[in-house]
Every structure is written in structure tokens, then in C-alpha cells.
Amino acid sequence: MSGAADATATEPGRPTAVTARGIAKAFGPVKALTGADLEVGAGEVIGLVGHNGAGKSTLMNLIAGGLVRDAGELVIAGHPIGPDHSPRAAQAIGVRCVFQELSLCPNLDVAENTRVFHPALSGWSWRRRATRIIGESLAAIFPGHGIDLRAKVGTLPIAMRQMIEVARGFSVADDPLRLVILDEPTSALDERRAAELLRHVRRVAALGVSVILVTHRLNEIFEVADRIVVMRDGAVVAEQPASSLTRADLVALMGGAEDGPAARTGGDGAASGDILVSLPAAGPGAVAIEARAGEIVGFAGLDGHGQREALRALNRPGAGREATAFVAGDRQADGVFPLWSIAQNLSLCALAGLRRGHLISARAEAELAQDWRRRIDIRAADLDRPILTLSGGNQQKVLFARALAAQAPVVLLDDPMRGVDVGTKQEVYRLIRAEAGRGRSFVWYSTELDELSHCDRVYVFREGRAVACLPAAAVSAAAIIEASFGGGRHGHA
Question: Is the pTM value of this prediction over 0.85?
């Protein structure tokens, strides 16, 4: 439960940071918002939740100036917002937005990206000032972050890029800081860095800065939110103090039910299936990695300690029994083909089964895409539209469907739940268990402890190699942290 007070935006005497009434927005025939209402008090932390496609990101984009509303009234910090609202105008009155799809320029370094965000940084000393501003913000939120501020952003791992994006959003140059919108800000962060960010949210809220936190990690909502707002089908359908809700209550308000982790058949870490992929021990104190047919194997530990490199080493694209399928967590860099349609992105790894003679059957491709659209609830009006017309969570569903539709016996998951709603997560968990029951093997890197509870066993990484193997019954936050910092070594069970 949240330790925050049962505050609401209409609490007597509390100034209002944002008031939105009857906000509507359509993209062609798709109605993204159908009359949404939202009020945020100064210094209030709002947890905004809802399934993928509920309208959360669209509403936040309207507040941040990235979109123009079709109807409704919007007031920010006492300023009525007209049709000429823009990101620069929003920033000038104190609104910042940290987007789920990172907006950093990959060919610029960290200081240069800070200058892009703060146009007031100019003159001969702009680099020194930009470096100081972003450096202080990073240090305040993520102590010991280890980021080289001179590095080109595109060369950095996704967790570091997300830390820079977050720190830039909280940084202050000349414009005030009144409202920070965080759209899935911890999706690429491990638990330690996510906890640091949540502590910073409470610190700035105590200083009067409002925060809207959009996340599918419900534990984070309960940890920091004063009030929880639920969206469904383009409108706000519920709002309550966080302390008055349980996790089950919140999932029900969102329109679903949450399963617990299923009992694993190999709960003692043992498995008798054939070894499908393996890596030898990578040095002194390391353990060998293997995944057998029918197993779900987890990778854990502090982010950046070799988990993604191990997944890439296991990845063998191609056809036949030796092939693997891959679900990228960094979908913009490693996942989607932005110029292709939703159906083309989904069917890419299943083309061998779609051939009719020497050609790919358009009908078979459409039928495959429609089948997976139903199975995993991809919310799209037309599967022939470009994939970038989908929300981030729905793009991730397409990547899941692509991997599961392939014939590869091994599926590699690189922290794949970025921006995916709780209902879809439950469906994906069921699909993974069903496919494992048919003999497929899954190797799953996750920064979320709850997801690791679905694994038969978990390898913990430190300094570029797997240093412990925990059977399912031994997986806990304490055990993973202990192994991450060199507290103990477990062999194969």
C-alpha cells in the first residue's frame, strides 16, 4: 500500500496544476480519447493506469503539447491552453514529459541532448552549463550512475538512455518545474534504479512539483501515488486514493483479473528434456548456462552485467531445430521495422509456413496476423497500417506474436514487458507456459522479480557472467541481491 496521504486534487486549499475536462482526440476513425477528465493538484503524485490503448499516452501528449485536442478544456498552472499549445509552450509553463519511446538524439552526446531540451542553454559556455545541469540531475536521481556524459547516446545501453531521459526531464535551466509526466519511466531499469527514481518522485512532490506516473508496474503505483486514476476506452472510469485500493481492486477496475504464478513442473530446478541451448562458464566463479526442452529459464541481476550479451550469444536466427526466436526489449533499436505494416512485422519469422509455391501468400499472412491479433489482443483498427501507429505496448505485443508464431524451439526474451499492460502480461504468461508444455524452451531476462517467479530456475549475473543458479523455490529478491553483490554461489540444483 502507498504510504502517501489520502490526498485528492480537489482537496480544499490545494492549488491545481492541471485541469482537463471533456478532452477528445481522434486519429481518423480511431477515437483515442472520448471525453477524458483529469485534475492534478500541486505536489500531488497521480498514478495513471489502464490497458494498452486506453488513451493514457494520448492524454499525456496533449498536456505536454505534442498533440492538439479535438475538443475539451485544458488549464495548466492557471493558464487556459488554446489550440496553439506546443511542447515549447508547455515547457515554458513548467511541464516536462519523459516519454515511453525515448526521445534522445542518438548521434549527440549527453550534454548536447540536454541543450536540445533546454534552448536557453546558449553562448560560449553552454556545454559547461549543460554538463553541470544534467550531471547534477543524474547524480540526484541515480547516485553512482556511471554514465559518461561525453558519450554519444546511441552507444549507451537502453537502461542508461532511460536514466538520461528521466534526469533530463527533471533538470532545470531557465524554465520552472511544475509538472513531470513519467510514461513508463522504469521499463528498462532494474529494481535498484527504479527504487531510486521513486524516492526522487516523493522528494520533488514534497517541494510542490506534481508528477503523473504512467506505468504497468502496479507495485510502483502503490509505492508513490497519492491517488490512482484508471482509464479505459479513452476516458477516465475511476479515481481513488491509493491507500483505499488493493492490487486486486485496481486490476478489477482496469477490467481484468490477475493470475498468480503457476506451479512449475520442474520446481526443484531439474529437467529431463534435451539441452537446446547452452553457454560454458565464462571464467572463475561462473556457472555454465543451459536451457532444456520445456524449461523456462530466467536471467537476473543488476542491469548491464552481461544478461543481454548472454542472450545475444544464444541467439541463432534461421530455420530448423537449431534456430532461436528473439523478443527485444529495446523495440525501436532491435524490434520493429518502422516502415512495415503491423501484419508484415508480425509474420516476419513465420514466412516459411506462408509460402504457396515460390511466393508468400498474402491471404495466409493476413490470416496469421488476424489469429494472433485475437490471441494476444493487439488493439489495431487495421493490420495493414504502419506499426508505428500502435501504442508502445501494442507494438510489444506484435513482437511477442512474431516470436511465438515462429517455429524456433527456443525463444529468447530480452526484458520484453516494456509498456505492456497487466492483462496482456497474464495472457503472455499463459502462452509461454503452454508453449513450454509443448517442449519449447524460453530464456527470459527480466528486471521484474514478479516475472522471474514463472521460471524453473534463474541465473544471476555479475560482472559479465552468470555467477549463481537459483532453483525456482529459492528465487527471491534477497537471494538475487546477495548473488548480485557476491554474497554466495549456487550450483545447478
Answer: no
